[in-house]
Fold this protein.
Amino acid sequence: MKSIAIIGTGIAGMGCGYFLHKEFDIEFYEENDYIGGHTNTVYVEEDDGFIPIDTGFIVFNRETYPNLVKLFNRLSVEVKPTNMSFSVQHLPTGLEYGSQLLFAQKRNYFSPAYIKMLFQIRHFFTESDEILNNERYASYSLLDYVTEKKYGSDFIYKYIVPMSSALWSTPTDVTLQYPVRVLVQFFKNHGLLGTDTQFQWYTVHNGSEQYKEKLIEPFKNRIQTGKAAVRVFRENGKARVLASDGSEKTYDKVIFACHADQALKILAIPSETEARLLKNFRYQQNVATLHTDETIMPKTRPIWSAWNYRVEAIDGKVTATTIYDMNILQQVSQKKNYFVSINDPGKISPSKIIQTIEYEHPVFTVATAIAQKQLHQLNENDVSYFCGSYFRFGFHEDAFTSAVNLCERLLARSPWEMAKNPKPELIS
Ligand SMILES: Cc1cc2nc3c(=O)[nH]c(=O)nc-3n(C[C@H](O)[C@H](O)[C@H](O)COP(=O)(O)OP(=O)(O)OC[C@H]3O[C@@H](n4cnc5c(N)ncnc54)[C@H](O)[C@@H]3O)c2cc1C
């Protein structure tokens, strides 16, 4: 049986483990002290026990997450409906609105600027097909597009940037550099055109930990946490992995199921193709804070939504935070409100903080969109392979699909066949 080292236990790495563990001798390296990467349920103590709250991956839908849905069905993972409502609180102007309550502030009925913004939201999405089909826009960033089309600053800073920044957890300047096509394609694919969502969204009942445990159950003993791969040497047609505990081991193959920049860092001698493609992917730090501080939520209580975007000026600099309302998203508690804030600028009362976790999310630019089309070249050899969310839009389905595609290449058939009808172990 051939051996494979898998570096990283996010959904991409765990997905590879699920499909490959019967036919390869797999062994995982995981830098964190827990398994799962962005699949990370935190258990919070309440009077009568512990409640599960997701702090990374939370939502999916049946329309645009086909592989993840197939996996959840195979594993009999219980899911429940949730929603993708959003609110915006713009502290410099006092504007507050929610996708499900556009006129919660009565003054907005009489605000020409606000009415104009609503019209422009509608108009932007009538232009979506043109953006996707006209080659002219292939190299446009969001900023290029809205500037050329003379969209108003309210549409830009109180709608399209907040909405996109909330989805990718990126600051305003980074969001404005997003390729306009990637953004519109994602909105369209995910039924997020306009102020309403066209799809029903779901979350895993009792947290994503539920699916993780079922997924890794057959190969959990092959995972070592707190053990990073620090260097990977490819020599004599094999891969030698040097680990953070000083150990070294040689495998027939290695899968980099970590982020693109992390893979490039640990590759001893990257090929020209690897260096050229992987260097395009930069990552944005997303500090997730699980807390119970309601004071950072919109003053207009009825607009509290699943995703809440808060814009404020701190020392003359515009700062943006996304706040997930975990009771709206996952109904985690009947006693208290729990929130997960992304990149909070220090406004949460320290006494209300439960846990802080550092994540990283890929940042997409026009250059990354071009590089993505060539990423398949990374997996056209017989020793080292790559997968992760950076292969597409940066979401859970994207990471898992990259694992499905890679395993199809390694198994030379659909990986789903094996998962359904496990074959006896193959001798290499
Ligand atoms: C706050 C937040 C909320 C999100 N919410 C959603 C959502 O609701 N729906 C959705 O579809 N997507 C969501 N996403 C995106 C989605 O969760 C991720 O894109 C996806 O899960 C990433 O999976 P991955 O396997 O590519 O990477 P990760 O989950 O990041 O896994 C990579 C793993 O590699 C490990 N690693 C790195 N370097 C090394 C090394 N040298 N040695 C050993 N191990 C290493 C890391 O520790 C990590 O465990 C969210 C992301 C964030 C940050």
